Amino acid sequence: MKKVIVTGAAGMLGTDLCPLLSENGFKVYRTDLYAENQDFDILDVRAEDRVSDYIKEVKPELVIHLAAETDVDRCEKEAEHAFLTNTKGTENIALVCQSLDIPMVFISTGAVFDGKKEGGYTEEDMPRPLSVYGDSKLKAERIVQSVLSKYYIVRAGWMIGGHKKDKKFVWKIIQILKTKKEIAVVTDKFGSPTFTKDFSKGILDIVSTGQYGLYHCVNKGICNRFNIAEKIVEYLGRKDIVLKPVTSEVFPLPAPRGRSESLLNHKLSLMAMDNMRSWQEALKEYVEEGKEVA
What we know:
By secondary structure, the chain is an alpha/beta fold. It has one domain (about 1-170, about 190-220, about 260-280): 3-Layer(aba) Sandwich (Rossmann fold). About 40% of the residues lie in helices and about 20% in strands. The protein contains 10 helices and 13 strands. The strands form 4 sheets. A 7-stranded parallel β-sheet has the order 3-2-1-4-5-6-11, sandwiched between helices. Helix 1 (about 10-25) packs across helix 7 (about 195-210) and helix 6 (about 170-175) crosses helix 8. The longest helix is centred in the N-terminal third of the chain and has 22 residues, at about 80-100. The radius of gyration is 19 Å and the shape is globular.
């Protein structure tokens, strides 16, 4: 049985990825900054010595690095925290993987791009991050690429999943709709939703190839925030809701966002491995699951 360490395992993605790994014959060592229960080990990826000791003790065949500060606005306001967590934390993992010859999976983001491209970004496009968050993740990518030869960098889009652990756009819209019948949603920001269940399967498929490198893995299709809200309302069956289209100027935020964070699974397509569903199918499943866990 292959041993795998998953950092940040208590988050949105880890909630779906860890059980999937177990189902596929991996012995999963779940780590997080805070231990939820006895199945989790406490691991602060910013603590270099602790990271080294833990990985050397477990001796895994693979490390999947999910731990990150994903609050884009907090990163903008607390840049030192962002780079310490997202960049230095990743470097700490990569250096131990290098010394022990362990393959590493690093999860990155469409926020590494400036958002000016029409259509989705591919793995061949040049990153130019606008925010501290995007910059911290891009610097982490480059560290992984420079330190390791056995790595998978997998970029995700607008993540959805985890339900009660979800604090991102889709979850927020669903919560707002519980108390309001009219909401304003922006129409000028575009992206690629990425359902954690589908993304987890994508990670497993990529790792199974043994073909190291950089991948995009998002649900198919490009949409804006308003498109997503429309579908949420439809899937909830809420004909009483009024959605008001607005521009992002109505909601000023600390961190700059590009017009588009849309990604295309170009490399997976070339490998005949793009098994990701449409974003509409994925969102519908997530919303319907939410009715059961509410």
